[in-house]
Amino acid sequence: MSQKHTDRLGQVIGRVLRGGETIALYGPLGAGKTALVRGIAEGLGASPTAISSPTFVVIHEYQGRLPLAHVDLYRIRTPRELESTGLIEYFSGQTVTAIEWADRGLAALPQDRIEIRLNHRAARSRTIQVSATGPKSDEVIALARIQHSKTSSVHRASPRRALNREDTTRS
Fold first, then answer.
1. Helix, strand or coil for residue 19?
2. Three-state secondary structure string covering 60-92
3. 141, 169 in Cβ contact below 8 A?
4. Cβ-based burial of 57 (10 A; exposed 0-12, middle 13-18, buried ≥19)
5. 67-105, pLDDT tens digit by residue?
6. Whole-angstrom Cα distance, residue 160 to residue 108?
7. What is the reported pTM?
8. Domains in the chain, start-ordered, CATH in brackets?
9. How many other C-beta atoms lie within 10 A of the C-beta of residue 116?
10. Nearest Cα to 158, choosing from 121, 132, 120?
11. Three-class DSSP category at 12
12. Contact, 66 vs 33, CB < 8 A?
């Protein structure tokens, strides 16, 4: 998936979000996590040019159709550090929470979340796997899948329509 396709996928996800969702992002440095959040922000109606990695401040907030909290847990090392970020407060209400390096805070994440794994495939492309861990996130992914299929081809890694389905999109 190219940068353009990553951005488009993020926009599609942002357009179908209803509020209160948590998006857990996984992948190595430079895999496109912030680029995907930039697309999500644009899909929510926030300015994509304002989006930058919150590595040093941990959380950036943006306002669009719904509020977006962009979180980066890269520098979080202990449960106490995680607790001091105030992350858990974002999980109630209408705020969409997109969390880079989510694996560093798994214990604190809601059970129902969208999980997105980004990996390098080549110098200018990546693979993205999207999965749901509960009914709310499954609904969002289903809506996003419909919207995304209207704009590009989607290759399914798993044809079943189970709750924990996974899509792999490649370009």
1. coil
2. EEEECCCEEEEEECCCCCCHHHHHHCCHHHHHC
3. no
4. exposed
5. 999 999 999 988 888 888 889 999 988 999 999 999 999
6. 29
7. 0.83
8. 3-169 (3.40.50.300)
9. 25
10. 132
11. helix
12. no
